[in-house]
Amino acid sequence: MSAESSPKIVIVDESPIRAAILEEGLREAGFTRVVHISEMQSLLARIYSEDPDVILIDLENPSRDVLEAMFQVSRAVRRPIAMFVDQSDSASIQASVDAGVSAYIVDGLKKERIKPILDLCISRFNAFSKLQDELDRTKSALEERKVIDRAKGILMKVKGLTEDEAYVLLRSTAMREKKKIGEIAQSILTASELLK
Amino acid sequence: MTTPLHIGFIPLVDASALIIAVDKGFATAEGLDVTLTREVSWSNVRDKLNIGRFDAAHLLAPVAIASSLGLGHVKVPIAAPFNLGLNGNAITISPALHAAIMGEIDGDPRNPLVTAQALSRVVAARRKAGAEPLTFGMTFPFSTHNYQLRFWMAAGGVDPDEDVHLVVLPPPYMVDSLANGHVDAFCVGAPWNSVAVDLGVGHILHFVSDILVRAAEKVLAVRQSWSDKNPEVLAALIRAASRAAQFIEQPDNRSEAAHILAKPEYIGVDAQVILRTLDGRLKISPDGKIRESSRYLLVGREGAARPDPAQAAWLYAQMVRWGQTAMRPDALKTAMEVFRPDLYDAAMGQPGKSGNGADAIGAFAGPAFTPDDIAGHLAAFEIGRWKP
Q1: Nearest-angstrom CA–CA distance, B2 and B168
Q2: What is the pTM assigned to this prediction?
């Protein structure tokens, strides 16, 4: 795709990582004219000066309402902009809301040209949330590991157990109480704080 | 058996009937298992209601009408069977603009016509001096805030499209924008006006009840199709919200209500600020001056909860006046049918009566409003984008 025919895309997102993931995807797909705006002050002025064909914004961003003002005929707008809604394609609207992204396009840009951009956007946003979930899970697993290690330490000291015995005790208690090992470990830490 | 319901809201004091209905168990008592979702933009609330991610929502009354008419977005017919609040907004101005307006005041500054005329002289002086036009913030193109600001300034001879800049700002950004000079004034709901005054960056110039005696502000909105399919669930939701509104309106309960609303998962600002709003007793300037009004925000009292189609007609008339849509009799009818006193009455089990007299709106300028002759009504106003 030549630079001339590639639509100019503005990404409005306060998350630099997600914006980078999206920008990379768009460039790989041949959309070379991509601009990221992370500063929400005077957002409209920035958008007017960039004069994009497509604006992508994440749904966690309160400034979405600012973009809605662009629907209104205003002297400040050079080209009318509308939200991308294809009444015949409600699945794609739902997919974009669920992924957490919304697209605004300049009136007149053909549906066939916006569809691949939106699809890519949805898949990158979904990939980002998956990444975020994994990161959160890893973080909490690490936290749990630390709690279990400290609980084992307490059991070894108080009951004179080996590390393996302490772990077995934790695990069997968890099974008996139908709780997670992490939860049992946490209650040992809490109890030992109280008994200090 | 309980019915699960997903309801979206924006953290503002006029979401209180929904929040209290859930938090105090009034919804559960009606057999509803409500999950409240706090949203960051009206666009999100509208879209999630439209596609069915929300069963019901706290929504700007004009957005419910715009959605039903397909203005600015997809056309999804909405039913509004319960007013969550009347009034509740205020116009707050920066200390510099406050000084400028007070310097030009000729009459009682509590009179909105007097302040609007003073604003007109400030605007003229700025133009003569080659200064940038003043910028006013409001919350959404289809919002009461937009129409209230326009109605007020136009009465004094200020053209909101030609003489000043009107910009959309998310409510949580209003106060910062006023503090850093990005806007000179704004019109927004509670608690943001009080937050600006407390921080010393703004003066409350008017309660919107100075401009309109009764202004439908936020509604409980559902999709028309959902309402048709779930009449009993909707009636239960209306009753739960009504019980919550009655709870909030008891002065003895307001402190408890304010503390619930202040929780971070709901509105997340200081309970005292919310209490001032519910009591209609607001600090209006950084020096501590207090103003009381029994009309600041009405949640349920004086028949406020019962939708009045004449108010939907007034909002439609503003869309026409400011060029958001053309005047069409069928569109007026559609707009009025968004407000559903019949559903309200059915849920409450009694024929209701709205609390207004001859004029459902009570605007400070122009002739009394009647839905029967919107063209004639609008012709009385000099400034507007509407061409008959």
Answers
A1: 40
A2: 0.87
- The type of residue at B207 is F
Cβ-count burial of B299 within 10 angstroms (0-12 exposed, 13-18 middle, 19+ buried)? buried
Between chain A and chain B, how many beta carbons pairs sit less than 8 Å apart? 69
A20 to A12, A15, A32, B3: CA distances (angstroms): 11, 9, 14, 42
- Give contacts of A93 with chain B, Cβ < 8 Å: 47, 51
Classify each residue of B21-60 as buried b or exposed e, where b means 16 or more C-beta atoms within 10 Å of its C-beta. bbbbebbeebebebebeebbbbbbbbbbbbbebbbbbbbb
**CA-CA-CA-CA torsion sign (B98, B99, B101, B106):** positive
Cβ neighbours of residue B5 closer than 8 Å, sequence gap 6 or more: B27, B32, B33, B34, B35, B55, B56, B233, B237
**8 Å CB contact of A41 and B141:** no
Q: Kind and range of the H or E element at A159?
A: helix A111-159
Amino acid at site B185: A
CA distance B158 to B149: 11
Is A68 within 8 Å of B168 (Cβ atoms)? yes
Measured CA to CA, the distance from residue B171 to residue B268 in angstroms comes to: 13
Cα separation, A41 vs A47, whole angstroms: 11
| Listed residue (B367, B365, B384) closest to B376, CA to CA | B367
Q: How far apart are CA A93 and CA B119, in angstroms?
A: 44
Q: What is the DSSP letter of B210?
A: G
Per-residue pLDDT of chain B (388 residues; tens, 9 = 90+): 689 999 999 999 999 999 999 999 999 999 999 999 999 999 999 999 999 999 999 999 999 999 999 988 788 999 999 999 999 999 999 999 999 999 999 999 999 999 999 999 999 999 999 999 999 999 999 999 999 999 999 999 999 999 999 999 988 889 999 999 999 999 999 899 999 999 999 999 999 999 999 999 999 999 999 999 999 999 999 999 999 999 999 999 999 999 999 999 999 999 999 999 999 999 999 999 999 999 999 999 999 999 999 999 999 999 999 999 999 999 999 999 999 999 999 999 987 665 555 578 999 999 999 899 999 999 999 999 887 7
Q: Tell me how crowded residue A75 is: count the other CB atoms within 10 A of its CB.
A: 7
The token pair that represents B109 in the structure block: 């500054």
Is the peptide bond prior to B309 cis by the omega test (within 30 degrees of 0)? no
| Contact B163/A at CB under 8 A | no
Interface of A with B (CB under 8 A): 40-42, 44, 59-69, 71-73, 75, 83, 85, 87, 90, 93-94, 97-98, 102
B363, B212 contact by CB (below 8 A): yes
